[in-house]
Amino acid sequence: MEALHIDCDECVMQGTSACDDCIVTFIVSRNPSEAVTADADQTAALHLLGRAGLVPESRHQARAS
Fold first, then answer.
1. How far is CA 60 from the centre of its chain?
2. Tens digit of pLDDT for each residue in 18-39?
3. Integer distance in angstroms from the first to the last C-alpha of the chain?
4. What confidence category does residue 43 fall into, taking pLDDT thresholds of 50, 70 and 90?
5. DSSP H or E stretch at residue 47
6. For a FRET experiment, which of 1, 36, 44, 48 has its CA 20 to 30 Å from that of 26?
């Protein structure tokens, strides 16, 4: 599994109600202009927690370049 990189400025969902229940919003209090990067082990843990319903799953969808 590769590292997960979420940059809200690259997400088509940015500024929508999807942000309210996004893993990034749920787990970290961050400046909206800062990207979040998780290594492979952290990414696997986030996926497991999401599938178990313990945290929201990522809703990130990259914008077309």
1. 6
2. 877 777 766 666 666 677 777 8
3. 24
4. confident
5. helix 40-51
6. 1
